[in-house]
Amino acid sequence: MVNLELYKIFYAVAKCGSLTKTAEQLYISQPAVSQSIKQLEGQLNTVLFNRTHRGMELSEHGGKLIIDDVEKALEYLEAAENKISEMQQTPTGTLRIGATDSIFAHVLPDRIVEYHEKFPQVKIELVTGTTPETVEQLRDSRVDVGFVNLPLDNNDVNCMQTVAHLNDVFVAGREYVELKGRKVDLEELSAYPLLMIEQNTVARKTVTAFADTLGVALVPDVEVASWDFMIKLAVRGMGVGCIPREYVKHELDSGELFVVDTEPALPARGIGLAVAKTMTLPYALKEFVEMFKDSKVNA
């Protein structure tokens, strides 16, 4: 394969008609231009120019045969470079965001609306999944940015920052009024029917690990796949739910549920903004990430 730079110099000489003018245009020496033409002619095994007293003229059976194709090829390459440059300097294309349903519902709406109002030309795709699924989508380039439950132990993604904090609590309805208004240790609470999120989630693993350090086994009577379903069951008296306080504000404000004041309280955790480690951030994604810098989203 011939060095692309040789074709660029060939094209410049063809347009300038002079080695001297080409050297001035490309900011290289005249001998370097002459040597490049000789090298290209040697690799193609043909004479590309006739050297005349008027300058450099394309040869009939060499330069004239390839000049149009070289021009088109260089135009295609320039267009490709412009696309990359545009992507890096202008928010265009599609921004694919991965997160859980709850993070989309409680953490990201304002930011997504703000970004859309600022850059309406960028198409936004929302891809829902658990945190492990979002990490896999980041790794496989199926999403550009992911919002994941922390802590995260994965070497394939780069967690750039924490964008929100979640405070896990136990909540209950009027069926368990005896738990209201007093300190309840986890050992006592473990005897009640518990509603917990499914096992493969960061939220469940974090709460279970914390309880284990206290020697308490939190075994759910009902395991659910979504926070919304857990809230419905808790309101109907099916058990005591373990859920981020930020996801159950409405029911707490309305009095349908109350927070069980556990001793000790469950540890807070975060939501992180993550990208694939190999990801080069296009301009549209850089602008989106920038919105989260030096600020926390109110979940």
Keywords:
13 strands; two-stranded antiparallel sheet; 299 residues; alpha/beta; nine-stranded mixed β-sheet; 23% strand
How would you describe the overall organization of this protein?
The relative contact order is 0.14. 42% of the residues lie in helices and 23% in strands. It is rod-shaped. It has helices spanning 4-16, 19-26, 30-44, 63-89, 101-106, 109-118, 131-139, 186-189, 202-213, 227-235, 249-254, 283-290, and strands at 49-52, 55-58, 94-99, 123-128, 145-149, 157-172, 184-185, 194-197, 222-224, 240-244, 258-260, 262-263, 268-276. It has 299 residues and is α/β, with parallel strands linked by helices.
Topology:
Layout: H1 4-16, H2 19-26, H3 30-44, E1 49-52, E2 55-58, H4 63-89, E3 94-99, H5 101-106, H6 109-118, E4 123-128, H7 131-139, E5 145-149, E6 157-172, E7 184-185, H8 186-189, E8 194-197, H9 202-213, E9 222-224, H10 227-235, E10 240-244, H11 249-254, E11 258-260, E12 262-263, E13 268-276, H12 283-290
Parallel strand pairs: 3-4, 3-5, 7-12, 8-9, 8-10
Antiparallel strand pairs: 1-2, 5-13, 6-10, 6-11, 6-13
Task: Give the CA-CA distance, first to last residue.
Answer: 56 Å
Class inferred from helices and paired strands: alpha/beta
Order of helices and strands: HHHEEHEHHEHEEEHEHEHEHEEEH
| Mean model confidence by pLDDT | 91
- Tell me the overall shape: rod-shaped
Number-wise, the strands total 13
Rounded radius of gyration (Å)? 32 Å
Amount of helix: 40-55%
Major beta-sheet overview: 9 strands, mixed
Low-confidence stretches: none
How much of the residues is beta strand, in percent? 15-25%
Number of helices: 12
